[in-house]
Amino acid sequence: MKLKIGYRALIDSAMEKIETVPLNQAQELLQDSNVVFVDIRDIRELERDGMIPGALHAPRGMLEFWIDPESPYYKPIFGEGKRFILYCASAWRSALATKTLQDMGLPHVCHLEGGFSAWKQANLLVAEKPSKSPKS
């Protein structure tokens, strides 16, 4: 089967249109109360690998529903005017998700360069998955 567009082309296209936050800048933003790191990985990834301290877990499959005030699943944190830095394992899902949320009109949304894998490889702070997300 030949697809019209492959996953790599989708990611490349998204990357041209979104902001990518470098690891060193992201580390500085970790203490900023106007910045929310959003972990979009599967719950099993969080349990296995940990997450960025204080991050909000928002599963990739629920993001569009959580940011839309018209949705029964809306999470008010997404209406607080904060800056959102999305991340996944390797910055592929987060690139696509950032582009989608940007298209929906969520302001101040970007993603983490290299994803959580790069974060861990740089020996930056990692926390265990909390039993309940701290910012939900």
Automatic annotation (TrEMBL):
PROSITE patterns of this UniProt entry? RHODANESE_3
The UniProt record lists the Rhodanese domain at 31-128
What InterPro entries does the annotation carry? Rhodanese-like_dom, Rhodanese-like_dom_sf
Give the Pfam families listed for this entry: Rhodanese
Which Gene Ontology MF annotations are present?
thiosulfate-cyanide sulfurtransferase activity
Looking up SUPFAM superfamilies in the UniProt record yields:
Rhodanese/Cell cycle control phosphatase
Protein name per UniProt: Rhodanese
Q: Which organism is it from?
A: Polynucleobacter tropicus
